[in-house]
Amino acid sequence: MLATEPVDMRKSIDGLMxxxxxxxxxDVYSGHLFAFVSRRGxxxxxxxxxxxxxxxxxxxxxxxxxxLPPVDAGAQVVHLDxxxxxxxxxxxxxxxxxxxxxxxxPGGLAxxxxxxxxxxAAAC
Length: 124
Known about the structure:
The protein is an alpha+beta fold. It has helices at 13-22, 82-89, and strands at 2-3, 34-37, 43-50, 53-60, 77-78. The chain has a three-stranded antiparallel β-sheet, covered by helices on one side.
């Protein structure tokens, strides 16, 4: 989950944890990743619970800003999948990325990848 409003980067684990609990109503012990961007947009913190303790990742861009995805009016958070979060952390504009349509195997292939009526392909 990504905060839609900038967050004071002086907040540490306890301050961010309180924000997740009170403003978002989320369980901080769920193992989800909670991401927060600074006012200038050049810093991001990611908070998560992992096997008995909190982890806090802090990244500062030397140039440029994090490009946030589109936000619905009034939303407090944006739900990101793992790929979108990785792209955000790498500085990629998630809103400009267009996924390819989901693929499916051609109609003539068997489950093991061999053609019907033929033996399976030999390994080279």
